[in-house]
Automatic annotation (TrEMBL):
The entry's keywords: Membrane, Transmembrane, Transmembrane helix
Bilayer-crossing regions: 7-26, 38-55, 62-80, 92-120
Protein's UniProt keywords contain Membrane: yes
Record keyword Metal-binding present: no
Coiled-coil ranges from the UniProt annotation: none
The protein's name in its UniProt record: DUF2809 domain-containing protein
Short name of one Pfam family: DUF2809
Length: 130
């Protein structure tokens, strides 16, 4: 049952990651609101599913809190501007994982993204595990 649950969260994380990458790549085709906010919200949603996959026996509330703290820590780390860290952020993977510049609105996007994935988890994923 744990393996099945972990696999389900892995698949959810991969789908969420693909949706986030698609929102960046095809952003011009999306409504402006989605283009501006979806990528960050989906990134945090992927973090939530990753946390659920790794710590499956923990509560969803714990995953929400850890996800918000983790995502916020990444965002606040963008205030640190050292040459080696900026060099890492200048790569595609570095920018996708660490971001580039601190924005307060990103903290809101992360929280909303995590809460949306919590709702999906609560009503669709967790109920299917048994």
């Amino acid at each position: 049952m744990l393996i099945r649950g972990r696999l389900m969260y892995l698949i959810a994380a991969v789908i969420t990651m693909a949706a986030g990458l698609a929102s960046r790549h095809f952003g011009g085709m999306l409504p402006v609101f989605l283009h501006e906010h979806a990528g960050d919200a989906l990134w945090a949603g992927m973090v939530y599913f990753g946390i659920r996959m790794i710590w499956i026996s923990r509560s969803r509330v714990w995953a929400i809190m850890f996800g918000v703290i983790f995502s916020s820590a990444i965002e606040f780390s963008q205030m640190i501007q050292t040459p080696w860290l900026n060099e890492l952020r200048s790569t595609m993977f570095g920018a996708l994982i660490l971001g580039r510049g601190f924005l307060v609105v990103d903290l809101i996007r992360y929280t909303v993204g995590i809460m949306c994935m919590f709702v999906l988890d609560h009503y669709f994923l967790s109920n299917r595990r048994s």
